[in-house]
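Reviewers of the previous submission asked for a worked example of the structure-prediction workflow described in the proposal, so we include one complete record here. The input consisted solely of the amino acid sequence. No template or homolog information was supplied to the procedure at any stage.
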Amino acid sequence: MKIKTIVACLILSLMMGCSSTAQSAKSKNDSDDKYRDSTLSIEERVEALLPLLSLEEKVAQMRIFHANIGVESDENGKLKLSDVVVEKLKLGIAGIKNPGEHIDAVAAAKLNNELQKYIIESNRWGIPALFVTESYNGVDAEGCTVFGRPITSAASFNPKLVNRIWDVVGREARLRGMHMCHSPEADIVRDPRFGRMSEAFGEDTYLTTQMVTNAIKGVQGNYEGLGNGTHIGAVAKHFAGYGQVLGGSNFAAIEISPRTLIDEIYPPFEAAVKEARTLGIMASHGDLNGIASHGNPELLTGVLRDQWGFDGYVVSDSNDIARLYYFMNVAESPEAAAQMGLEAGIDIDLYAEDSYAYLPKMVKENPDLEKLIDRSVRRVLRTKFILGLFDNPFIDIEEVKKGVRSESSLDLAKEADLESIILLKNKNNVLPLNNTKTTKIALLGPLVKDNTKEMFESISNSNINFIAEKGFDLTDGNSGVPKLLDRDAKSIDNLVNIAKNSDVIILFLGGDEFTSKEAYFNKALGDRATIEPVGPQDELIEKINNLGKPIIVVLKHRRTLAINTIAEKADAILDTWDLSEFGDQSTARIIFGEVSPSGKLPVTVPRSIGQLPYHYSMKEINYKKGYLFLEDGPIFPFGHGLSYSEFKYSDIKISKMELTPDSTLEVSANVQNVGNFMAKEAVQMYIKDEIGTVTRPDMELKGIEKIELRPGESKIVTFKITPEMLEFTGLNMKKILESGDYTVKIGTSSSENIETTFKLKTK
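From that input alone, the workflow returned the following structure tokens.
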């Protein structure tokens, strides 16, 4: 591909009649500059600019392309643009995905300043572009603080902590020159076969809602950070139901009852819109109950805008407008696909661009379409004004040097790790290990990293001797179509021999990044048909168990695994999901008792794929049966997580026995640390509707409070119960409050709690 330097590009822009500054690149009519007046409201500025744009310029504001088609730095760090990119930027652009993602923050900021300058000077009206990133482990780019994945942070059961994490994400992204984040994921994930499970916050509606709202408020700087230039806009995704694709297969159909949609799937998105004020929403890949999400006006306009009042922009997922034609088979032509997306309410075409490129020609045949184009362009321009890009489009490089990967951000990553690690099992209190006793510890298994031994040594005493050996890999590491490796008997025997000569064995098991990832087209796989640990991991723990020595398992994974053998053979299990860059060090701090674990399961851990779908809040009728040859119940329940201390729940009280539609009540319980460790505990409140006119969930999480107690210390934890918490979709598909009996449960998990009751009276 022919590459031009920025100098050549600037020459080209001059040849196009554009000046070297955004201010002088405009029409000579002074009235055309009204949109530049920062004293006007955002709406006034949008309405002043929109009529100036040609149809082609409007459509350009509805397209995002990926930087990998030709936005990069040359050997001197200067901007290089491909011919393709130069052509795309002639009329302006809505945005560009991930420019500078593979270079450090300072270099990226410099690159993005140059890129933004070029874009402003290359279009008639000096309209800046949105630079877009994502957040799975912090900012999805080099040189930023690496946090645990969203489902890992969900295990903290601490929404305030999630808010602080995403505040750092917003700040670091903005300092790189980013403006929007195609995150967080507001989907409820209840099928661990799905390769993208770790991008979400778990199986529960309430927990996900709390985490999503706090993530958005954090990344947007409570909205004020947008215009101040300190934070970026959020794009909540994937609307709606994407976490429950049939068979756990990416792009598959989604079949969710209308009642479940309203009561369980919509709430995180609704809160993202109404409470967190997300700037954007991304539509879902799949269809929803037979209607392709990207061509669903009832969903993207009716629910999202008419019911909830969303005024931001809706962006397609990658190539999905075009897929209405060539994949979903619901549009007869690419042009028809474009019209479907536009009429449904998709404002920005992500990546494919093929679709909305047809719009100018289509308007000539159907002029009414321009009204819909204007609708979308208003939303895009409004977003750019909210972010202050017309007035302050560039990054202060000196601020980048101070603000990215600061000590406070790195410390936060470590803090989040410690609150997110889950102690699933601790037979005979094998943990914590004694850090003063001379001990030989073997760090073994396929999830051992190159620096695992170093991380453990950094927090242990010199009398602890470590040996680390990975032994074998699980996959060949192919990012496209990873393959499981053959069993290596020699490697397994070597690990067992190392274990023989050790006092304690710590096994690092679970799954690598290639056993759980987003599945694309063209055989790029990431979903799974089974949920057991792959490879000879069960064999390894069985053989080491025969040695009769203490076994601690550290689980690393991005999807829920049916760890039957591990749960049986291990003396202790620490579930770490996918932690920060300091993950092994944080795990070592937990293992040696520097901190007591306080993480809780954001998912239910099933015994078998045959139990799916399986989540704690299923309707009670689902729990009245079991399966042949399989023990009933999960391996570990939702909300489960042990501590090195012990918490006693007692003295549950309720402020009154009756609740009415215009009142509230309070329920409290005394929580006492009766153990020997200072420890944190995520206190959970569940509510059960005993009888309903429609079948109701077995129970629903409705409150979380994370507390820290010294040994012997107690605290009364109080939750408020409002009528809104008890609403559900009734027989007529309307939200109702229904008189009847309710049980309130307060405890350490969905299965261990104390309870009381109250009545709801609606008459």
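The CA atoms of residues 611 and 730 lie 28 Å apart. We consider this example representative of the routine output the project will generate in years two and three.
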